[in-house]
Amino acid sequence: MSLRNKKNGFTLIELLVVVGMIVVLSTVTLISLNSARIKTRNAERVSSVKTLTTAFSLSLASNNPLPDTSSISNGWACISNTCYGNLSAYLPNTSVDAFLNPNLPQKPIDSPGGRNGGGFLYRNPATYFGITGAYLFYALEPNGSVVTACNPGKLINSTSTRWSCVLQIDN
Hints:
2 helices
């Protein structure tokens, strides 16, 4: 008998199994990459919040009173480079910018992500959790535990696309 009758190569079933395994592995990898991207963007946002908090603290230490935003039509002032999406109605305020300028030479940038709007907002006075004061507003992409979502701030609203957070800066 000759060995020429034996077929060389792979069967269709073997090829389909290998392709299926590649599809599953690539899907798991893409999900992990997306999760890592969300965590990175959220870490950048929290870092910007800490930078803003430091700028406010340094300006307060110079005996400058916190700017009052009650005269602004919606009460909130955009304090990031831009406020976009559903936060685009919030505009910069010259008194808030002047207050921050000596200690914040460049406004933070809130990179777009899986939210329907972004930016950093400031309001004084505002009341959250029964406490009136000056607050920063920022939004994070949902990822991980809601309990620690807004650290160092507090969660005020949670949806499938955004965690809305506030941080009191005058306490």
